[in-house]
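Collaborator request log, item 7. Partner lab (contact: R.S.) asked for a structural prediction of Mutator-like transposase domain-containing protein to inform their binding assays.
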Amino acid sequence: MSSSLRAELLFFACSFLTSRIVLLCKQVPKKKADGLTLHSDDNSRFGLVLKLKLYCDNCGTVVNDVFTSERSLNDKKFSINTSAVVASSLCGIGPLTFNNFCEHLDLPGLSAKNFYNRTKSIYKDAEDVRQALHSKTIRLVRKEHAKNSNSALSDDDILDIAVSFDGTWMTRGHKSMIGVSCVIDVLTGYVIDFEVLSSFCQTCSTTGTRLKAQSPALYKEWFESHKPDCDINYTGSSGMMETHAAETLWRRSIEKFHYTTMLSDGDSKAFNKVCEIKPHGEVPITKEECVNHVGKRMGTALRFQNLHTSISNINFSYK
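Returned to partner:
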């Protein structure tokens, strides 16, 4: 660790502890302000949080105490522990790696049970926020389309919109087990809907594999209870994830919306599948090519032609 980083961490730690001590001292009566000693209570440690106590040097009683982290107003959980789990999740690490990280910094960690419980709580809160933002997005999309068409749209009117559709995978290649596809409104650029597909479940890979080897009957009983929480929602090939996601997204197209124009890359499998299922009845769906993808294919073809042409005096110029 560099000396500058040590200095920054030390400054942060001192500033933080000073603020907590000031909070302690502000609540101490003036007549007890002399002869105070600050101690940490190791019996009141909760993950990365500990309790600071001010003791009276004369009688030894606790004058005041305070935790080193604030609590959430909703569930009374300590903010620093929740923030640590959020940061770990964003970095893609679990409780084992997180605790190894804390160990090298001489910090206490979080138990695996506490870590996973907080992960579930964070996921629930994030899902509530996502639903609220999604509802707001739909209202804004309808408002912008009404403004663009200079017409008044009632809440019951069905809106035909052009959307951009594309998919991506967690890893490169054709063996990725997790993929995500999005539908984006072309006019506003807002994400209207998305679908995450996974052919892998960590719990099935560990606990399920172990139970299946021990007893098929025990595994079957376990899997029935695990099925509602299983991460596997797709069993096909990685290459067909995008097509499957397109079918799912167009089938459940947001109420009062028709995705009548698909702006995507040159792959037509997803578009052909959408046209096949006819999610909007007899309302036709058209496909628009992305200019960047067209330019990329044209540039590749011109470079190939320029390289392999048998007529030496012909040179294809392109930008």
